[in-house]
Amino acid sequence: MTSDSTTPAAPTAGRIALVGIGPGSVQHMTQRARDAIAEADVVIGYVTYIKLVADLIEGKEIVRKSMTEELDRAVSALQAARQGKKVALISSGDAGVYGMAGPTFEVLFQAGWTPDDPVQVEIVPGASALNSCAARVGAPLTHDFCAISLSDLLTPWPTIARRLDAVAMADFVVALYNPKSGRRTRQIVEAQRLFLRHRRPDTPVAIVKSAYRRREHIVHTTLDRMADADIGMLSTVLIGNSHTFVRHGLMVTPRGYGNKYDMADGGGAIEGERPGRSLSTGLLGWLQNLHLEHAAGVDVHTLATRYGLPVDYIAATLQEPCTDTECQTSEETSA
Ligand code: SAH
Asked: Does residue 191's CB lie within 6 angstroms of at least one atom of ligand 1?
């Protein structure tokens, strides 16, 4: 049977791609992001991001939305997809990092969408600002880090402040997103105040504005001067941990190799450490030591203060018999 041009085509379901376009330069966009945009009938996004991909979207239906129209953008995406269109909803960086992925799913769920729906949703990952900004200043995120947004448009300030306090105390490297805008100028000052309660004033800080974009601007400063720097909506602030240093203009956070290897002298293991094994102060070594200290009469409260850990945690670990071979051996030896 030959097909008849008057036969209506089977309705093809539309789809939604949540596309992270990376920091803003075409070279730093993934191939899948480019393809998803190329395949789309409709491209929806914040005006600035639409401009960043202008050369990829000629001839397509474009829906430009402003900053405050995020839910609207998700609704437009669903409507278009329900009509059978392929939609690319674009976010800068990664769509799942302070981007459109979350609000889109919330809107979809509200509308009764499930993963079995004919409208399929794809999330296309992109390099987030913390990746891009870190790459521009060296290797600041090589140890535990976290991201905090200073935007209080949707998050109460006490929540933000509590998180700042917790991560400052826990010595994370931190990437501050949305650090400052025309109207939100005091948040960065409060963040600095909270950090200075736990961190040294000379802790390295890098402020990267518009990474990989035309107006890119990078400033290296320190925690005590951070709030005086030129910071705006397009900046990400990277605050180092207590080991982060700056050398030859590069901000570097050590992985910890120096705890185990002699970095200056051929890289051999330092005394008491073994390549491929946990540190002598890793979990088992630390537990072993904890048991020894406790057996020698150091009380749980003193140990909790010494290691900066909760008393009940120390008490609970001491309750556990020390079963590891290393631990037994040494307890036997010390007995
Ligand atoms: N989804 C984005 C983040 C959106 S929130 C991502 O994954 O990167 C907006 C914030 O991201 C800005 O206030 C700024 O802190 C940061 N940001 C986004 N692009 C940036 C860039 N090119 N350079 C520096 N910071 C950027």
From this structure: no
| C-beta 70 within 6 A of ligand 1 | no
* Cβ contact 90:76 at 8 Å: no
Instruction: Domain 15-127: give its CATH code.
Output: 3.40.1010.10
- Nearest-atom number in ligand 1 for the CA of 96 is 1
* Tokens 């051996």 sit on residue: 329
Domain spans of the chain, in order of start: 15-127, 130-252, 258-333
317 to 170, 255, 282: CA distances (angstroms): 20, 27, 14
CA neighbor of 173 nearest in space, from 194, 195, 189: 195
Find the 91 Cα to ligand 1 centroid distance in Å.
10
Does the C-beta of 141 come closer than 6 Å to ligand 1? no
Dihedral pair phi/psi, residue 138, rounded to 5°: 135, -125
How many other CB atoms sit within 10 Å of the CB of residue 166? Answer: 14
Cα-to-centroid distance, 64 and ligand 1 (Å): 18
In this structure, the residue with its CA closest to atom 4 of ligand 1 is 98
Ligand 1 neighbourhood includes 92 CB (under 6 angstroms): yes
pLDDT (tens digit per residue) in 211-266 = 999 999 999 999 999 999 999 999 999 999 999 999 999 999 999 877 777 877 77
Percent of the chain scored above 90 by pLDDT? 71
What pTM does this model have? 0.90
Which residues have a Cβ under 8 Å from the Cβ of 254 and sit 6 or more positions away? 142, 143, 243, 244, 245
Q: Is the CB of 13 under 6 A from ligand 1?
A: no
In the sheet where 86-91 sits, what is the strand order?
61-65, 42-46, 86-91, 15-20, 120-124
CATH topology (fold) of 130-252: 3.30.950
* Backbone φ/ψ region at 171: left (φ over 0), alpha (ψ -120 to 50), beta: left
15-127 shares its CATH topology with 130-252: no
> Ligand 1 in contact with 97 (CB < 6 A)?
yes
